[in-house]
Design brief:
The protein is an alpha+beta fold. It has helices spanning 15-25, 44-54, 103-118, 143-153, 232-240, 249-254, 299-314, 327-335, 339-344; strands spanning 5-10, 31-38, 59-64, 68-70, 74-75, 79-85, 89-98, 130-136, 159-163, 175-177, 180-182, 185-193, 197-202, 205-207, 212-218, 223-227, 230-231, 257-261, 264-268, 270-273, 279-281, 290-296, 320-326, 350-356, 359-360, 364-365, 369-374. The protein is built from nine helices and 27 strands. The strands form four sheets. Strands 14, 15, 16, 17, 18, 19, 20, 21 and 22 form a nine-stranded antiparallel sheet that branches. Strand 20 and strand 21 (279-281) form a beta hairpin.
């Protein structure tokens, strides 16, 4: 019997051995689309070329990671993959958006390729039938511009995904599209879905402070200098109960900032304090934004609550999907030794994904799990 959705993983380093191992696990799948997520220690481009050769009728996309996930395993230095057959996806199209000539221009060219492949303008696609996956290079700070450009091309369509990683080295990330590779671009995968689907996000935080206003920032560099007209270090440190000199990764992870939209937090995570007193973030923050300092509400519990809501929408037919989990959530999970509990949240599903350098859906965010689930 042919399966219509299946996950696979391998820790084989050699591209041929890795491709063979994945194909063996997917032997009973005839994929329309195949996404793989590979450690930077793998040869992701060579692996993608072998998978494309194995499945010439499928769209094969991928990226480098900060760790990999499936419904059965918490992985590092490995490859995870998800294959979608025609029972889940009627048609798929993919394009590599190269950003060397500008982000908006690269997204526009890739969007035109998708429109040509589907035979219809992206603006005319039914958002109940079509959904996109976005895999974007993770170090050049192009996520906001790419999401904005996608919103202009297909304002009713959802593109969900994450930013490629390199296992925390922050040196080079890549995306892969049908055997091509780029370290300055994004892969767009557009799916005409044959079953009900749900895009979800969870960040497991709530406001720990009142609202603050960003009064001085360098948004292009993701730096905030003043909050409520005062030096950002002083205001932030006072809110979390530490001295400014004590601000660091543990404080940042426990108390990111959040925009509250319709009662839901959209997280912006601090990265480091700069010598000039600015606070650099992993995500863009604009002057005039109203933000809250946040506190955790329980990561694993929040993930399970979100999946319960997905099941409420898709019912017992929920079969699996993609999961894009922030590297900072990975660090929290590992620090609390919750790897098994987190993976158990996805029991009885076919899931593959990776730990990201940022998450995308309607914009760019941090410390979030964005997902795409299929009935």
């Amino acid at each position: 019997m042919t399966r219509e959705i299946a996950s696979a993983y391998t820790d084989a380093r050699d591209p041929k051995l890795a491709a063979d191992a994945l194909c063996e696990q997917l032997v009973d799948v005839d994929p329309v689309a195949l996404a793989y997520f590979a450690s930077c220690h793998q040869d992701g481009a060579a692996l993608g070329a072998r998978l494309r050769a194995a499945y010439p009728g499928a769209c094969v996309v991928g990226c480098t990671t900060a760790g990999e996930l499936t419904d059965r395993a918490w992985l590092t230095d490995s490859v995870s993959a998800l294959a979608l057959g025609r029972g889940k996806v009627r048609r798929a199209a993919t394009a590599l958006a190269r950003f060397d000539g500008g982000v908006a221009q690269g997204i526009a060219r890739a969007g035109a390729q998708l429109s040509a492949a589907m035979g219809v303008d992206l603006r005319e696609l039914d958002p109940q039938r079509y959904v996109g996956v976005l895999l974007i290079e993770g170090l050049r700070m192009h996520e906001e511009a790419a999401n904005d450009a996608l919103g202009n091309l297909g304002p009713m369509l959802s593109f969900v995904g994450g930013s490629a990683g390199d296992d925390g080295a922050f040196e080079r990330t890549q995306v892969f599209c049908n055997g091509e590779a780029s370290d300055d671009g994004a892969v767009l995968l557009l799916l005409e879905v044959a079953v009900p689907f749900v895009v979800s996000k969870t960040s497991s935080f709530e406001p720990a402070s009142g609202e603050h206003v960003v009064t001085r920032a360098d948004s292009a560099q993701r730096i905030v200098y003043e909050l409520d007209g005062r030096p950002v270090r002083e205001v932030y440190a006072a809110q979390v109960g530490v001295q400014p000199a004590a601000l660091g990764e543990q404080v940042f992870m426990a108390h990111p900032w959040g925009l509250m939209i319709d009662g839901k937090p959209w997280i912006r995570s601090p990265q480091r304090v700069l010598p000039d007193g600015g606070l650099k973030f992993y995500c863009e923050i604009l002057e005039g934004m109203r933000v809250h300092v946040m506190r955790s509400t329980g990561l694993v519990e929040g993930t399970r609550r979100e999946l319960a809501q997905v099941r409420a929408q898709l019912g017992d037919k929920l079969s699996g999907g993609f999961a894009f989990n922030c590297i900072l959530r990975r660090k929290e999970i590992e620090a609390m030794h919750m790897q098994s509990a987190f993976i158990e949240s996805f029991a009885h599903l076919q899931m593959a994904g990776f730990h990201t350098y940022g998450e995308s859906w309607l914009g760019h965010m941090n410390q979030t799990l964005t997902s795409l689930w299929f009935a």
